[in-house]
Amino acid sequence: MAGISSLGIGSGLDLNGLLDQLRSAERKQLEPLTRQVAQQEAKISAYGRLKSGVDKLQNAAAALNDSALYQKLSASVQGDGLSASVSESASPGSYDIAVTSIATAGSLATTRVDSLEDSLTDAGATLDLDFGDGSTYSVSLEADSTLEGIRDTINADADAGVDASIINDGSGHRLVLSSRDTGADAGITGMTFNGLSAGVTLGEDAATARLGKDAELDINGITITSATNTVEEAIQGVTLTLSPEAEGNTLSLTVSQDKEAAKEAVTKWVSAYNQLQSTIGRMIKPGTDDTSAGELIGDSTVRTLESRMVRDLTSSVPGGDFSLLSELGISLNEKGRLEIDDETLDAAIADSPQGVADFFAGDSEEAGMAGVFNATLEQALDDKGMIGNAIEGAESRVDSLKERFTRMETSIERTIERYRKQFAALDGMIAQMNQTTNYLTQQFDALSAQLGRKK
């Protein structure tokens, strides 16, 4: 019999269904590999979250390991209208600052123009500006410019030194020029129009002049002037910023050690450590009836990392006012989290700032507790460190499992193809047998009929 194109046609058996059942049964061999791949990929993801947490903690530890942190100064101001910031070059000190005046920009208005529609200039017209430092500047004006056109031309000129606006005083329109910078030198002192149209009278109105003014202040008896309200380096390393409320007032400025900076850095480090411990806790939790086990339960990488961190936290740091973390009010609780006794830490920073610096930062990169702790985390984060090796190992296992999966899947398909060929042969054989049976039945029926007629 010719080849059968679809299984079961010749025999009437559901051979396709049987083949599907055999395929499903064979593919069950792949399920353990699929589960193992999923487990390893979950581990890789967990290692990534672990690495992120360790990286955040390492950054916090590196900040504690910076000796400049403990030398940082802050500025405190009593009174309104003055703010101050300090740089590394500042020194502690107290200052009385009497502000006589703040810096202002100059302004000057023109005489009135009746209509904004009037053309005011001929070709080649200019506006010449005078400034407090004796300098001048000329703005070229287009022919037939209105007051609004003059305003727009001035504002479009980046070098003009003034901004222009228009004010209606109830009797007419005035062009008002305001210095872009504060201070006496930058203030506008005069303006002259050249090339105005016939019959146009437009010039400065001296009565409206407001000269630019420098800021003037007295710092511990020393008079200081500044063209701007940002006074830099009058006190070394200190920048003062004046606002109108300061004018006519005497204010107090104190530059002192920034105790909050050190405490904030310690708090961030403690918070980062506790967050990492929470992350680890979720990864190593045992499973229950309602929840699955953590991805890294029983993982040696996590146990090693935790062991090394606890070792660093509890080790003694020799040679300073403080030798143990607990002496600064920082301790491990029964849950493995760090806790801060604010009163003890505040007292340590206030009474012995250098001792706190020696404990955390030491006199070299890895001499203090933070330096040792930071080095441990850097080793863990290194490409060939414990986390990197764990990720690499899990990725290698995933690759190996996927290769086994592919090989086994190919083997299964070969087995199924062999079954298919065997079923096709069976289908053909049964079809031939059915055909022979039908033929013999017909022959026996015919013979029986002939014998019946002879009787």
From TrEMBL:
Homopentamer. It holds the Pfam family FliD_N. It comes from Halomonas salifodinae. Its main location: secreted. Residues 11-105 form the Flagellar hook-associated protein 2 N-terminal domain. Required for morphogenesis and for the elongation of the flagellar filament by facilitating polymerization of the flagellin monomers at the tip of growing filament. Forms a capping structure, which prevents flagellin subunits (transported through the central channel of the flagellum) from leaking out without polymerization at the distal end. It is found in: Secreted; Bacterial flagellum. The lineage of its organism: Bacteria, Pseudomonadati, Pseudomonadota, Gammaproteobacteria, Oceanospirillales. Belongs to the FliD family. Keywords: Bacterial flagellum, Cell projection, Cilium, Coiled coil, Flagellum, Secreted. Residues 212-435 form the Flagellar hook-associated protein 2 C-terminal domain. InterPro entries: Flagellin_hook_IN_motif, FliD, FliD_C, FliD_N. This is Flagellar hook-associated protein 2. The keyword Nucleotide-binding does not apply.
